[in-house]
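User: Predict the complex with 1-deoxynojirimycin.
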Amino acid sequence: MKKIFYLTMGMGAALLLASISLPKQDAAKDSIDQKVETLLAKMTLEEKVGQMNQYNGFYDATGPAPSEGNAKNKFEHLKKGWVGSVLNVRGAKEVRELQKMVVEESRLGIPLIFGLDVIHGHKTLAPIPLGEAASWDLEAIRKSARMAAVEASAVGINWTFGPMVDISRDARWGRVMEGAGEDPYLGAKIGVARVKGFQGDDLAANNTIAACAKHFAGYGFAEAGRDYNTVDVGTSTLYNVILPPFKAAVQQGDVKTVMNAFNILNGIPATGNAFLQREILKEKWGFDGFVVSDWGSIMEMIPHGFAADLKEAAMHAANAGSDMDMESYGYLKHLVDLVKEGKVTEDKIDDAVRRILKVKYELGLFNNPYLYCDEAREKEMLYHADHYEDALDMARKSIVLLKNNPASNKSKLLPFEKGKKIAVIGALADDKTSPLGSWRIGSDDGTAVSVLEGLKEYTDFTYAKGANVALGAPEFQQQVDINTTDKSGFGEAVALAKKSETVVMVLGEHGFMSGEGRSRTDIGLPGVQQELLEAVYAVNKNIVLVLMNGRPLALPWAAEHVPAIVETWHLGTQSGHAIAQVLFGDYNPSGKLPMSFPRSVGQCPIYYNHYSTGRPDEEAFVFWSHYIDESNDPMYAFGHGLSYTDFEYSDFKIDDTNPAEIKVSVVVKNKGKVAGEEVSQLYIHDKVASVARPVKELKGFEKYSLESQESKIITFTLTEAELGFYDNQGKFIVEPGMFDIMVGTSSIKGLSGSFELK
Ligand code: NOJ
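Assistant: Here is the predicted structure with 1-deoxynojirimycin placed in the model:
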């Protein structure tokens, strides 16, 4: 395929260059808006519709195979100016060649914008986004997105389809790995940090790229966690949980693009939903960038039962405010006719094209269409040494110490003393690809530092694989075999554990078991890993379980029996170094869960900020809201995460003398022997409201470090922004009355009090 792409580049391009002039940047004073108007006035209807058309490249696909992926036609269309953007074409040289074809051979020479899913790095990979979210460190997250933008922009990319700001409460959904977890407050802050990292301070610089808040809206609420499934949420959840991270990305992050979603919302597909895209996003929030459809989501309105055919689907999407068509071919085929038939007004087309051109101007593409196509820079920036440092920092900060109880010799297993002899068991310990995680289009297999490589720098160890994790055929990532049954390695692993004092078991999901299209109904350890864990435990209870996974797992047996559990997600390029540094105490873990870990998959969706029911309290008999076979509580709560030191909370105070700024403070002391970082979290509960409010809502957090025995006063300020909520008409209101407040180390542990908002 790639070859076809080069074959079509001919000398003809150079000949045409003489007669066609680029739309040059006018006098500097001219605002971008004026330039857009000037250009728009020169465009034919076909050329306008062309800007609204996005094609996939010719060799990577990040969705179902394009039904009409005839490369030859695509080149013709590019030369006619019928394509505004392409996705999945990368490499400074490849991008330059395609850009040149369009700039030199199309009538107006409007440059393409090149999109790619740059989700947690391009070559150098940071942890998966859910892992990064566990750091609660907004500056580190911003820097991580910056690193991703620097590498991606060096391969010609000027637009990433990230961040995903979908809130999700269901660990069965494979795409939870791509977001910031279950909480809208944390999710909004992280979304803004990511947008700022991608877009930087100057979008026209050659190392910044346009971001895209996705998937607008509700995609994270796919029923039963099955990807692409029906979404059916109430208005209050829409306004208070789903929309806030998008609003923040638009208003605080100035995100340049938004991607709509595959799902329906109240029976109307998000892609054809004017209420979402026009009324809320563009009118209410003042979003002035453009909306791209998700892959094929325009044509998917046909199977949704909302459009009879592609023409009707294109009409709905354009009227509803979807500005660019990704891989449905609906706009190119039908929009011109739809305008001529009066079914879509030319004003709507103009509005979409204005938005797209504006972003292209802002990216600096009209000044220099090849701004991002510098092969020397590409060589220099990919896997840049500075990026290893940033990725390592982010990886360490993303690790969550879930449990660290005394083991059989009565002392805590972690951290290990330097040089301590350990046995290591588990295929993932020796894996240099899986820890890179899902959604890593630009990266190279085998580039993660494995756990074994990381440990080598600290100690001699003995190793046994024990069992396969179910790696699956690499060329068919979707076919990851989760049912591996081979136990032939058990004997060796158990024998090794028997003669060792301490065992590190590295278990979990392969990197490709989460991500798009990777929903699971069983969120335990895949394959025979649970059996391996129990077999090893039978001979040696001193186990440190290092988990690698792209979603919360339900591991009740491990939580009950294994003394120490370290959650490492898929940490990216620097995995092994980060894990070894934490195990040997060179980095004191500071991560906190951004998503609840259930005890059983049957509890999903499970989230800390749920509502009360009318029967919340335990009754002697069955008639209260509970399960008869499992507790209501998660295994590990939202916000949970331990440290190698202990933080003591005291002196909880609420100062409500000024109702516009309620001050809440605590004193936190590091009572242990080592320095550590803590994330103090503030939760509110609006006790009685005109629309029932959740039992707890995160409304503030602060991450800081304390030396041994050091104390600090942590003060939070609550204003209307934190105390109010959206009513069922989408109006933000603040109601007087009683509020419970808690400040603590997780969503379930802290000091609390109340005040009345007058
Ligand atoms: C489909 C995914 O839902 C979306 O997030 C992604 O950006 C596009 N494919 C393009 O790869």
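Residues 494 and 536 are 5 Å apart (CA to CA).
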